[in-house]
Amino acid sequence: MAANNWSTGLCDCFSDCRSCCLTCFCPCVTFGRNAEIADRGQSSCCMCGCLFCLLNAYLHGGLSWLIGMGYRTKIRRQYGISGDGCADCLTHFCCQPCALCQEYRELQFQGFDVLAGWDANVSKQTRGVTMAPVGDAMKR
Prior knowledge:
Layout: H1 17-25, H2 27-38, H3 45-57, H4 64-78, H5 85-109, H6 118-127, H7 134-139
Helix pairs in contact: 1-2, 1-5, 2-3, 2-4, 2-5, 3-4, 4-5
């Protein structure tokens, strides 16, 4: 499988000013939204955001990059994006806001409405799918 690149650059934060401002003022919300989509609804935005916030407060922001790095790796692997764990670690350690914005934009590029959350995305994807009535299928 050929490796893909991120759909936008690390420093393209201003290509989506809304997510850039959100990340600047409330990085825990951006992280929570990204994590809920990356986990396919297995974790909530609120839970992940609170965990990020707690880790961010510990030692004045010293540990939130650890959980951020893990989710960056998860998103990268889900979409076949080139890179490795070391690069993910350095990206979150050195420039976490840019990394969170890039991940948010990537999830949007992959077709998710990150703001809506996992359940709304699944609902939106299945809304247009209709099945043939059982009786009609049996007659054929």
